[in-house]
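hey can u check if this looks right to u? its 190 residues, i copy pasted from the old doc so theres a chance i mangled smth
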Amino acid sequence: MNFLAHAWLARGGSDAFLLGNLVADGIKGSDLSGWPAPFAEGVRHHRRVDAFVDRHDTVRGALERTPKGQRRFAGIALDLVWDHFAALRLPTQERDALIRRSYRLMGRETAPARLASMVPVLIEQDWLHRYADFGFTCRAICGIGTRLRGPNRLAELIPHLEDDYPRLERDFEVLWPSVNAACGLPLDHG
């Protein structure tokens, strides 16, 4: 899961909790004592979601379908693909309200160093809405690949993702209700 899916799963929490979920990938280590409690709980929630998704049989199956030489980086690409499907399937009004809330929160706080330069671009270019366009999602995957060392292994995955799109869509239809039931926060929470 990436920004949009994490936001959806955390939308029932406080603003600090939601923000922690949104920027958790920029925070290293397990000691979160330097962060406000609701923010730190959001980071921990994000990590629980990631662990749940990574262990899910559907995700394991999608990774097994990935060409062997590209599996090491496939999880990164799948996180964005899941956001693509979430952007297509979430109820429009709720999705749009959540995106506005997420942009407001990310825009008023400085993101952790690893995300600091990316977050303003994400907001300005409206990535969370644009994930609904699979072409944009693929360009975002390639963009992440340029930040990794060596050849762009994520760009090499794009033909596979395009070919596997119908199966990935079916995978999402199994994964999404499962992750929501296990990790989604009710709207009346905190």
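The chain has eleven helices and no strands.
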